[in-house]
Amino acid sequence: MAIRVLLVDDQPLLRTGFRMILEAEQDLAVVGEAGDGLQAIDQVRALQPDVVLMDIRMPRMDGVEATRQITGPGRDGPAKVLVLTTFDLDEYVVEALRAGASGFLLKDAPANELVQAIRVVAAGEAMLAPSITRRLLDKYATHLPSGDEPVPDTLHTLTDREVEVLKLVARGLSNAEIAADLFVSETTVKTHVGHVLTKLGLRDRVQAAVYAYESGLVRPGAQ
To answer: What long-range pairs does 89-94 form, CB within 8 A, spacing at least 24?
Structure first.
């Protein structure tokens, strides 16, 4: 079964470029396009895509609110949102991640990275590029708590090892890198990540990373 993709961007030329890249792949199918957030919501309902490639800055409704309505609480549809950002201009990417996006990608990323990101997100994983994640969270640290706030009660439900894993997820490490850091197997790491997501009521690694910053467990700029 091909991965069904909805393209959302207010620039038709960019949508055309993305379509050409994706339709060259046998396992990807572009099922529709939208030029703003309102159209995106309607198209998601009508077309039931697996992945929505979502721009941030659009007329009528931006990508953050559209993401919130597509993936927010009570939404049981299959659609995952992969946010497109120019990074230097998009100060709302952290908000999009909070809203339920499964990751983000730079608009000037190579074609193979775009294709791989869609596959990763469609598989239920998070597109969490370590270097970009740290830069972005550090840049927009003013959007996040200072870390002086009380630790949420939900954090106390985690074991010490699960807290360690959450911190490493927030740094953008992959399961393999976490396994090497903690001297355990990847299977063990996957189990810990699953427990963290379940206990904290989070949908994926991206939300786990944002939670770690928002709770004060990890400070912006800290290593």
So the answer is: 89/57, 90/56, 90/57, 91/140, 91/143, 92/56, 92/62, 92/63, 92/64, 93/56, 93/136, 93/140, 94/136, 94/137, 94/140, 94/143, 94/144, 94/210
Chain segment 39-50, per-residue pLDDT in tens = 999 999 999 999
Q: Scanning the structure block, which residue is given the tokens 């497109």? A: 84
Crossing angle of helices 63-71 and 37-47, in 10° steps, is 30
Top CATH class, 1-136: alpha beta
What is 151-213's CATH number, 1.20.1540.10, 1.10.10.10, 2.70.40.10, 3.30.2130.10? 1.10.10.10
The pTM of the full predicted model, rounded to 2 decimals, is 0.71
Of 171, 173, 200, the closest CA to residue 184 belongs to 173
**pLDDT tier, 221 (very low <50, low <70, confident <90, very high otherwise):** low
Assess contact for 185 and 179: CB atoms under 8 A. yes
